[in-house]
C-alpha cells in the first residue's frame, strides 16, 4: 500500500507539471473505486485550473480553483494505485480508471485492485471533508514531537507499533516505516505504548522523521504495484534494516531478525537491539 513517502513522492513528481494548468477534460471509466465516484465529476472538473497540489496523510489534494468557485479533488491510492503522467495519445489499459487531460499531458489513475478513492469537495474548506476530518497528526509537521507522542499515549495498553499505524493518531506511517522507525529508536514493537518514557518518545519521534525523510529521498518503497508519476520505482525497501528480513542477521548485532503478527500485519524486529 502506498504510504506517506510514496504519496509525497507522487505529489512532488507532479508539481513541475500541473499547477497553473487547466483541466481540458476528465475521463471517468468506472463508476466506483472504493467509493462511488460522484456523478458528473467529469463535467465539474472540466475547465478548472489546478492551483496547488497538497497532501494530507495518504490523500493527495488537488486545489481545483477552490477560491474561485471550484473545489478540491481528493485522491487516495488505496492498495495498488498509482498516478502517472502520460502523453495525450497514450491508449488506456485495463486498470486505467480516470484521466485528467491537460494541454500537453494526461494524469492517469491506475488501480488494479480498486481500493483507491476519487472524491470531490465543493468549496475551499477541504479539511471539512469527512475523509480528512478524523485524521491524526502529520509526522513531518512541526507539532509532531516526543512530548506530543508521550502525552497522547498515556494509559494506552496497545503495543506501540499498531498504535503508530493508527491514522486517527498519526497519519501515513505504514508497516514498513513503523518497523524501521522502531528499529532506529531501539524500541521493541511489543512494548505497550503507555509504558514508554518521554525520553524514548523523543528518540522515536526523531526516528520517524528520519525514516520518512530517507524514504522520500529514495523515492518511496516499491513492493508490488507502486510507481512514480514518471513510471519509475522506489528503492527504500532495498535498504531496510528489519522489514522483510526474517531470519537474516541484524545489521547492528547479527542477531537473526524475528517476525510476528500484530493486528493482522507482519512485524519485523531485532530482539537484541530493540527493548
Automatic annotation (TrEMBL):
Binding site for DNA: 95, 113, 156
Database matches in InterPro entries: DNA_glyclase_Znf_dom_DNA_BS, FPG_cat, FPG_Glyclase, FPG_N, H2TH_FPG, Ribosomal_uS13-like_H2TH, Znf_DNA_glyclase/AP_lyase, Znf_FPG/IleRS
Catalyzed reaction equations: Hydrolysis of DNA containing ring-opened 7-methylguanine residues, releasing 2,6-diamino-4-hydroxy-5-(N-methyl)formamidopyrimidine; 2'-deoxyribonucleotide-(2'-deoxyribose 5'-phosphate)-2'-deoxyribonucleotide-DNA = a 3'-end 2'-deoxyribonucleotide-(2,3-dehydro-2,3-deoxyribose 5'-phosphate)-DNA + a 5'-end 5'-phospho-2'-deoxyribonucleoside-DNA + H(+)
Superkingdom of source: Bacteria
Entry's Gene Ontology molecular function annotations: 8-oxo-7,8-dihydroguanine DNA N-glycosylase activity; class I DNA-(apurinic or apyrimidinic site) endonuclease activity; damaged DNA binding; zinc ion binding
Enzyme Commission number: 3.2.2.23, 4.2.99.18
Full protein name: Formamidopyrimidine-DNA glycosylase
Organism encoding this protein: Candidatus Accumulibacter appositus
Source lineage: Bacteria, Pseudomonadati, Pseudomonadota, Betaproteobacteria, Candidatus Accumulibacter
Gene name as annotated: mutM
Amino acid at each position: 500500500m502506498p504510504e506517506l513517502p510514496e504519496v509525497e513522492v507522487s505529489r512532488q513528481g507532479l508539481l513541475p507539471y500541473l499547477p497553473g494548468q487547466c483541466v481540458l477534460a476528465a475521463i471517468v471509466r468506472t463508476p466506483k473505486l472504493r467509493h462511488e465516484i460522484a456523478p458528473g465529476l467529469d463535467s465539474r472538473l472540466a475547465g478548472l485550473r489546478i492551483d496547488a497540489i497538497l497532501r494530507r496523510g495518504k490523500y493527495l489534494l488537488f486545489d481545483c480553483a477552490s477560491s474561485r468557485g471550484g473545489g478540491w479533488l481528493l485522491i487516495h491510492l488505496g492498495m495498488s494505485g498509482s498516478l502517472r503522467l502520460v502523453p495525450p495519445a497514450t491508449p488506456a489499459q485495463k486498470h486505467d480508471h480516470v484521466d485528467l487531460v491537460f494541454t500537453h499531458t494526461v494524469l492517469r489513475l491506475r488501480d488494479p485492485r480498486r481500493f483507491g478513492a476519487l472524491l470531490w469537495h465543493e468549496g475551499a474548506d477541504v479539511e471539512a471533508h469527512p475523509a480528512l476530518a478524523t485524521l491524526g497528526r502529520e509526522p513531518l509537521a512541526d507539532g509532531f514531537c516526543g512530548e506530543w507522542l508521550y502525552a497522547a499515549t498515556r494509559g494506552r495498553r496497545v503495543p506501540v507499533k499498531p498504535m503508530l499505524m493508527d491514522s486517527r493518531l498519526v497519519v501515513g506511517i505504514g508497516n514498513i516505516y513503523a518497523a524501521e522507525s522502531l528499529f532506529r529508536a531501539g524500541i521493541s514493537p511489543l512494548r505497550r505504548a503507555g509504558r514508554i518514557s518521554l525520553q524514548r518518545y523523543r528518540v522515536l519521534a526523531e526516528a520517524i522523521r528520519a525514516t520518512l525523510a530517507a524514504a522520500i529521498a529514495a523515492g518511496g518503497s516499491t513492493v508490488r504495484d507502486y510507481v512514480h508519476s514518471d513510471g519509475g520505482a522506489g528503492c527504500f525497501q532495498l535498504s531496510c534494516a528489519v522489514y522483510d528480513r526474517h531470519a537474516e542477521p541484524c545489521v547492528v548485532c547479527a542477531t537473526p531478525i524475528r517476525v510476528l503478527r500484530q493486528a493482522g500485519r507482519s512485524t519485523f524486529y531485532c530482539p537484541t537491539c530493540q527493548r
